[in-house]
Write a structure and sequence with these properties.
The protein is mostly helical. The protein has 9 helices and no strands. It folds into 2 domains: 90 residues, RNA polymerase sigma factor, region 2, helix turn helix motif (Rna Polymerase Sigma Factor, Chain: A); 67 residues, Arc Repressor Mutant, subunit A (Orthogonal Bundle), CATH 1.10.10.10. α2 crosses α4 and α8 packs across α9.
Length: 194
């Protein structure tokens, strides 16, 4: 058993025993990573933090059901956090686009544009999308869910999911093509000859 597995096992046992220190350590261990997940799904910092805290409350309430032999702790926690974000997002927005678009999955974004983006920059653009479109984009592009799975989770039709994905891709492409929005990688001044 590696060091991380031992640490996780100790935290799980402590959380199952309702030890506050173990709960605090688990929260601190996964805080930053799970907050980034929440930011991907929710429009405002306040909603992201609310989802994070609600998600950890669910984690602590249901930690007794977690079986270390069936999966990784980080995967189990991320699943709960993503579902909490979806639930909170569903309360905050209305999915009312029943439009169908034939070419929903064929919106082109030039690879050279994407290659220039850093994760934080891309996240800032994704967060500018309308809330419903942002959630669908994240579930499809980042998490890899099918439109059927997205529809089931968000209680929308597959065509609505496709519409939001297409709209998100088009809006991102438009944002990326605006003058001044191209993000160039940092130059390496250390290797230049003087």
């Amino acid at each position: 058993m590696n060091l991380f597995a031992k640490q996780h096992s100790k935290l799980i046992k402590g959380c199952k025993a309702n030890e506050r220190l173990a709960q605090e350590d688990l929260y601190k261990l996964f805080y930053a990573e799970m907050l980034r997940v929440c930011y991907r799904y929710l429009k405002s910092d306040e909603l992201a933090k609310e989802a994070l805290n609600n998600g950890f409350l669910k984690i602590f309430q249901h930690i007794a059901t977690f079986d270390e032999n069936k999966g990784k702790l980080s995967t189990w926690i991320k699943t709960i956090i993503v579902r909490t974000c979806i639930d909170l997002g569903r309360k905050e927005i209305k999915f009312n686009h029943e439009n169908t678009i034939e070419d929903a999955d064929h919106v082109f974004i030039a690879p050279e544009v994407l290659d220039k983006l850093y994760a934080e920059d891309l996240l800032s653009y994704i967060r500018k999308l309308p809330a419903a479109t942002q959630i669908v984009f994240n579930l499809s592009v980042i998490e890899g869910y099918s439109h059927k799975e997205i529809g089931e989770q968000l209680m929308i039709s597959e065509s609505t999911s496709r519409w939001h994905l297409s709209a998100g891709k088009k809006q991102l492409r438009a944002m990326l093509m605006l003058p001044g929005n191209h993000i160039d990688p940092p130059t390496d001044n250390y290797n230049k000859a003087t």
